[in-house]
Design goal:
The chain is built from four helices and no strands. It starts with a helix and ends in a 6-residue tail after the last helix. The relative contact order is 0.14.
């Protein structure tokens, strides 16, 4: 269950960041409102995940997955291109998350 809560926190943060881009610096009311609500939900869910996860582990997973998902959304939705060093770096972020999940004693299993 803690991983599911953290996954929803990442999803909410990803929605909030996507809406932030769509809000055009908070000049469009609907995307701006979605940004505020999604970020509030993301932080609330993250706080729930912190009941189980150490803060460093939770934040590493939350921010790492958020980076990768936002980069994918930026590419697919907003037409933002990534070069190979950026893609490689994001692959390393995902590898780090897998190492934490699979091998760290600090992560709940």
């Amino acid at each position: 269950m803690p991983y599911l809560i953290l996954a929803f926190a990442v999803l909410a943060e990803t929605i909030g960041t996507s809406a932030l881009q769509a809000s055009q610096q908070f000049t469009r009311p609907l995307p701006a409102a979605i940004t505020v609500v999604a970020y509030a939900l993301a932080f609330w869910l993250l706080s729930l995940a912190l009941r189980t996860f150490p803060v460093g582990i939770a934040y590493a997973i939350w921010s790492g997955l958020g980076i990768v998902f936002i980069a994918a959304i930026g590419y697919l939705v907003f037409g933002q291109r990534l070069d190979w060093p950026a893609v490689t770096g994001m692959g390393l972020i995902l590898a780090g998350i897998l190492v934490i999940h699979l091998f760290s004693g600090a992560s709940p299993h």
